[in-house]
Amino acid sequence: MKERNGILRFLFFTATRTFGTIVDVGVVWLLTDFVFEDYFWVNVVSPTISFEMAVVVNFITSSYLVFRNRIDNSGKRSVLKRFLKFNLSAVMGYCIKLMALNLLKLSLGWHTALCNFIALAVAGIFNFLIADKWVFKKITHYEEDDDDEGESDKEICK
Questions:
Q1: What's the pLDDT band for 147 if we cut at 50, 70, 90?
Q2: pLDDT for the residue 3
Q3: Which residues, including other chains, have CB under 8 Å from residue 123's CB and lie 6 or more apart?
Q4: Residues 6+ apart with CB under 8 A from 81
Q5: Nearest CA to 59 among 37, 89, 38?
Q6: Exposed / middle / buried, residue 50 (Cβ in 10 Å: 0-12, 13-18, 19+)
């Protein structure tokens, strides 16, 4: 299966992240309105749970829609390792979003929602680049040789 070009992959990435954002907002709404009442649970635990739910959704959609041609999901260890890298990159992206939001808010005095929107775009570009270059980096395939000894280039390059 042919790999998508960078722009098309970025558009798929953006669409899947939009779905992840909907999951995040929906989960935090359900937890804060129907499950938790205490301040700590509403304002700390709910957003943490919703963030992780969105990370799981984003990982699944990235694995099977955006970067499906780059990965091999045959081994549990490979999937777990990639998920941990993905989760780490999501946390880094979240920190970048918070820093950008606060930098814009403090330096320009704009409304928090506008600062958040711009910060989401900055963090989104960061998240795409990290996913593209580190979490789901392109797999290099080697052609098999028909030499006398029966070794393939793939085996030699291990």
A1: very low
A2: 55
A3: 93, 94, 96, 97, 100
A4: none
A5: 89
A6: buried
SS3 content of the chain, % helix, strand, coil (to 5): 75, 0, 25
> Which helix (H) or strand (E) is 129 found in, with range?
helix 112-130
Structure tokens at 54: 């969105």
Contact 127, 88 (CB under 8 A): no
Q: For 73-128, how does the pLDDT look when each residue is reduced to its tens digit (9 = 90+)? A: 666 778 888 999 999 999 999 999 899 988 999 999 988 888 888 988 999 899 99
User: What does pTM read for this prediction?
Assistant: 0.73
Integer Cα distance of 8 and 79 in angstroms = 24
Residue owning tokens 């700390």: 44
Distance CA 128, CA 17 (A): 10
Residue 59: what residue type?
A: F
Q: Token pair for residue 17? A: 């992240």
- Answer left, alpha or beta for residue 109, where phi above 0 means left and psi between -120 and 50 means alpha: left
What is the C-alpha to C-alpha distance for residues 131 and 136, in angstroms, rounded to an integer?
A: 6
- Residue 98's H or E segment, with its range, is helix 76-108
Say if residues 6 and 131 touch (Cβ distance below 8 Å).
Answer: no
